[in-house]
Amino acid sequence: CYHRREVYTVYDMFTTRFKLHKVIYNHRTVKAVELMAVDALLAADSVLKISESITEPERFLELSDSILYVIERSKDPKLAKAKQILRRISCRDLYKFVDEVLIPPGVKQIRESEIASCQEDGLPPIDASDLSVYLIKANHGMGTRNPVENVDFYKTIEDVEPFRIQLSDI
Q: Which residue intervals define the domain HD-associated in the entry (predicted)?
């Protein structure tokens, strides 16, 4: 419960969360680095057996960012592709961002193959496996509902019954 005078602070917390997702967590550079790190880990999996650790809790708990350094310093030729991807991240030779569009309500997914099939004639071919689509839903955490309406407030410290504040009361 929060004191009713903190309603704007609570609302601001949800707005800050929205802004962080929009501006930082889903920024095109962050997404490029994230995708490249995943590709490097996938390329290293056949050697390091990273995916097998999910069935071995002790081994899974030992995984950390240090695995990237293990890949970078490895002499194993089977890790060359993973090393190259990590080197590209270090040199800021990141995967390219192509476009951002607003998706109409009701569209659940857009597949890479759909985008590749829309390519104009006369351009070099695009393979769907070279594309990544991120569908990002930007809201305050509860879709179209105002999350503050689900937060309990009190008027005085003696109150035993919390109450909810409606958007129209803010």
A: 7-97
